[in-house]
Amino acid sequence: MRWSESCIPTLKETPRDAEIQSHILMLRAGLIKKLTSGIYTFLPIGFKVLKKVENIIREEMDRAGCQEVLMPILHPEEIYRESGRLKSFGPELFKLTDGRKRTFALGPTHEEVITMVARDEMRSYRDLPQCLYQILTKFRDEIRPRYGVMRAREFIMKDAYSFHVDEKSLDETYRRIETAYRRIIERCGLEYRVVEAESGYIGGNESHEFMVLADNGEDRILSCDCGYAANLERAAALEDDTESRGGEEGPFREVETPGSATVEEVSRFLKVPDTDIVKTLLYDTEGKRIAVLLPGDREINNIKLTRILGDPEVRFLDPEEIKELTGGPVGYSGPVGLPKGTVIYADKLIMKYSSMTVGANRAEVHLTGVVPGRDFEINSFEDLVLAREGDLCPQCQNGLKLSNGIEVGHIFKLGIKYSEAMHASFLDENGESHNFIMGCYGFGVSRMVAAAIEQHHDKDGIIWPESISPFDLIILPVNVGNKEVMDTANELGEKFIEKGLSVLLDDRDLSPGVKFKDSELIGVPLRITIGRKLTDGVVELFHRKTRQVEEVPVGKIFEKILEHMEC
Ligand code: ATP
Ligand code: MG
Fold this sequence. Notes:
Bound molecules: adenosine-5'-triphosphate, magnesium ion
Shape: globular
Number of strands: 31
Structural class: alpha+beta
Largest sheet: 9 strands, mixed
Helix content: 25-40%
């Protein structure tokens, strides 16, 4: 490809609304162009990278025994009503109406469509297991589209769905896809972690996320050298249980705490550590009132609470409801003397307290020396708080480390969630009907391109891993007016192309400085610079990653590159 004839609109300046490096560099290197919020065109070199990632994914999915299909993007709304997801998708679902006033959705994912295929086409246990996948544009009206193609409203996903007679068969496919995903990310040259993930309030099911490690990743991972890793949302919060919390036991006392509605304020006013204080959070779940007790230095993990209650709509009480329930204002709630029928959940860490300081359910008053079991009853101990760095690894009891990641893949054991709702079943060898056991497996193709840049860049631009670079090498003739230089560049280019390498020839009549900067910005791993030294029979080979420069006799450069590509 000749740069002079290509659409590679590089930018010198940092675009205004781009915050993270991958977004900035994708715009600056001319990989993508914004149409409107969360919607992008992949320009020629961006598209080349996307195709490379896509091909690696396709090869690995085929190797794992999955079959490629292509499902429709337009989905009749009824199918979401049938699965019960119309509500859970909510406003993320893009909707449109046809000429006959029927409502359609633009596919955000394809569990419904594929379940309908299986319902009609996989009738017998003999047809199972099967795993079908596709690579297709998805549409989600994200509340906050951001970071370019990282969180877009229109993006490319590889999604796969498997159908099984039993859990064992599902487990086999699940492991096979896990291996395929590991291979995909390794082949793309990225560092990653597979983490235990939250499977939502459905509960019980297994789910893993594939996180590309990057400082600016939106996801938080807690991991341990022993190999354990979990999404922060998911991780159990374990502390050393030989250490106790709270103060002396004795009869509890009322203490005035003027202007102290937060843990920090109470801690400062009473001169006690925040770990002595226990927070009481009040919720509504399906019309019932519940109280949740947490150590003062810990935060609630609402996802855990949702799962434990099995209620995705659990919500905090508003100030009026709090007043009605406790008689006191926000910030002074406590577990002592709550009306009968208020179920009290406590985080497991509450077991460590000999006594505690809690709200008195009266303005500007707290109770100290409160003892659970004596002064009030706890109905259930659960793991409810958000884990944090330093909490103990559930496998080896060492301290967990916190890092950031970008979720590029998510695999999930669905069980019969969709097959039951959509009446999709097969006949077993006795002629009895059962719902399919299902798995689903998503991989963000366009997000992967951004993730690769987030992990591999420097101050000068992108540093592509070789396997997904838009070109194998760039040839940069410094002076395009010099016939000998241009002849050498063209000749070399053709020889490489004949060998199957992809080459970008920067034949633009621009200053060498601009061309060098641009070549580093777009991040091709190797550059052959043909300049003044050609008169001495020498060209320069520049390695983008190490910035190492080698002088190579022009007669040897061809073999040298081929050797490098093979190694
Ligand atoms: P997230 O938590 O990042 O919103 P998700 O849980 O909604 O992701 P899935 O429904 O599991 O994602 O989709 C599978 C994969 O599709 C994700 O792992 C991610 O790589 C990709 N993906 C999801 N949403 C987007 C988006 N808005 N833009 C780009 N890629 C996305
Ligand atoms: Mg999402």
